[in-house]
Specification:
The chain has 410 residues and is an alpha+beta fold. It is built from six helices and 15 strands. The strands form three sheets. Strands 6, 7, 8, 9, 10, 11, 12, 13, 14 and 15 form a ten-stranded mixed sheet that branches. A three-stranded antiparallel sheet has the order 2-1-3, with no helix packed on it. A hairpin with a 2-residue loop joins strand 12 and strand 13.
């Protein structure tokens, strides 16, 4: 018992769950075709007096010759129907139906019907296949959508399975001043075909949508005046990446994924676009430009620091010490001092008695016994200043000093 059939008159898929009102029962002139094997079907249970539920059946009740394909199509139809009802509940939706642009029952593509939704003047064709067909079937579907719905956005919601989600290690990013991890996938040939043909590839995960951006890895070229070595990093600082948005570039190595809420796709009335994801991509691009600029400037700073020789420390000036005179030179010096020695002054005790008692400022009379020309020095007005203690032991008297003292004693 089939739940769907290809309506050759309307050129679309019909589901018995949507109701069979207005559909002619029976063979209807070969109007209904099996989507798996292409044979003509019979609509049963469409009359009000029918005792069975509406369904499509093969002639002779032999069943489909391709039961596995028929089961896959039924499972895909269930996903499309649920998505259609989910989109109908979004704000601003003015029309929502199913369509199969470019589908040929003689050469079925294997794609389930697409959801055709309208937000005012904006039209969006949303695909939700359980598995992508070959690249040529994908391109044929995209061309048909352009021909039948000019200007419509073509969005492909894929499942998170191994066939459509070749997950890689998380991709670390710097986002709004914090470090975050984005999921990363390796796109296959079919996903690249959708992207290159102008379609938008998203992954639907419950109430979340994963929107891809391109990641292209590269190495910074070494420019004159830069040094990229010995940065004390775990990895090579020249290894970097660039983002391609709002869709991955054809030369992207991998795809990073931005998670957004499904309801955010229609946050702006009259549009269907992942505005929140695009804002995240803009932030990633701004962080990328700052990162690239900083690395190049730091490479120049490292080069400048290593190209400048370190300043040599100033040498301490050691005062030169005079060499002590030799014994011969010392003896010659003492002999010279003896030859040029001036006459010694009389000691104080050799003055006449009473000369020391003269008051200060009084000139002694002539003939008092004071030697002519010798004037005693005036007494100081105050006590003499203290004589500092010698810091070193008094050296032994020299030869001429001993001779002077000997002459005075005589």
């Amino acid at each position: 018992m089939g739940r769907s059939a290809w309506d050759t008159e309307r050129r679309t898929t019909v589901w018995v769950d949507d109701g069979v009102e207005g559909l002619p029962p029976g063979m209807a002139g070969g109007r209904y075709r099996c989507r798996a094997c292409g044979e003509r079907l019979i609509l049963k249970g469409a009359r009000p007096s029918a005792k069975v539920q509406p369904h499509f059946a093969h002639r002779g009740n032999d069943g489909c010759s391709r039961p596995e394909q028929e089961a896959l199509l039924d499972a895909s139809d269930e996903v499309v129907i649920q998505l259609r009802e989910q989109i109908r509940a979004l704000p601003g939706v003015t029309h929502c139906a199913t369509a199969s642009p470019g589908e040929d029952p003689e050469h079925p593509s294997g794609l389930p019907p697409a959801v055709l939704a309208q937000w005012g003047a904006t039209t969006v064709v949303i695909e939700a296949p359980s598995a992508l067909p070959g690249p040529e079937a994908i391109r044929h579907r995209i061309r048909a959508v352009r021909d039948e719905h000019a200007g419509a956005a073509h969005v492909w919601f894929l499942k998170r399975d191994l066939a459509q989600f070749q997950q890689l290690a998380p991709h670390p990013v710097w986002l709004r001043g914090q470090k975050a991890l984005h999921e990363q996938v390796a796109p296959n040939e079919r996903q690249k075909a959708v992207n290159e043909a102008g379609g938008h590839v998203y992954w639907l995960d419950g109430k979340a949508v994963l929107v891809p951006y391109g990641i292209r890895r590269f190495q910074h070229p070494v420019q004159p005046g830069q040094d990229w070595t010995n940065w004390k990093w775990r990895s090579d600082p020249r290894d970097d990446w660039r983002i391609s948005k709002p869709r991955p570039a054809p030369d992207a190595d991998t795809w990073g994924l931005v998670p957004v809420a499904f309801v955010s796709l229609t946050r702006t009335r009259g549009a269907f676009r992942p505005a929140d994801a695009y804002q995240v991509m803009d932030d990633l691009y701004a962080a990328q430009e700052r990162r690239i600029t900083w690395r190049n400037e730091h490479a120049r700073e490292v080069y400048a620091a290593r190209a400048t020789p370190p300043a040599e420390p100033e040498a301490e000036v050691v005062p030169q010490q005079s060499r002590p005179p030799s014994p011969v030179a010392a003896a010659d010096g003492e002999a010279a001092e003896l030859r040029t020695l001036p006459k010694p002054e009389p000691e104080p005790e050799s003055l006449p008695a009473g000369a020391a008692e003269q008051p200060a400022g009084v000139t002694p009379p002539a003939g008092t016994g004071t030697s002519a020309g010798i004037v005693p020095p005036p007494r100081p007005a105050g006590p003499p200043p203290p004589v500092p203690a010698p810091s070193a032991p008094v050296p032994a008297p020299r030869l001429w000093q001993r001779l002077v003292r000997l002459a005075r004693r005589r």
